[in-house]
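Researcher: We plan to redesign the surface later, but first we want a full-length starting point. Tokens attached.
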């Protein structure tokens, strides 16, 4: 079963408070809490952000509230510093293009969510 009720009570909130946050009826919140209805991805996203927990935690699939953020400096990609060569101008251009693509894609996602 999901942890919506537990998280709601921890914050001292009523079902009506949650219903306003997710823009659904109080009865729907009750159904979510009892497991009579499944939450959609948008609702899960809103609630996980609101409670600052992972969706897996919210759904009861993990006991870790909010997994540590990935430390990209610690990711081992199999290269040591001695193997590193700075990117060529062509590679730098590709990196910039990819970064612009990611930023544009993130903006598009944000705009889609705000519709």
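Model: Full-length starting sequence:
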């Amino acid at each position: 079963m999901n942890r919506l009720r537990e998280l709601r009570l921890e914050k001292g909130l009523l079902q009506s408070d949650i219903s306003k946050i997710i823009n659904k009826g109080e009865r729907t919140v009750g159904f979510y809490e009892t497991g009579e209805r499944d939450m959609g991805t948008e609702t899960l996203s809103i609630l996980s952000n609101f409670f600052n927990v992972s969706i897996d935690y919210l759904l009861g699939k993990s006991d870790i509230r909010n997994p540590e953020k990935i430390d990209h400096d610690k990711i081992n990609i199999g290269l040591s510093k001695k193997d590193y060569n700075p990117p060529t101008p062509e590679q730098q251009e590709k990196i910039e293009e990819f970064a612009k693509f990611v930023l544009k894609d993130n903006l598009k996602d944000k705009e889609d969510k705000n519709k």
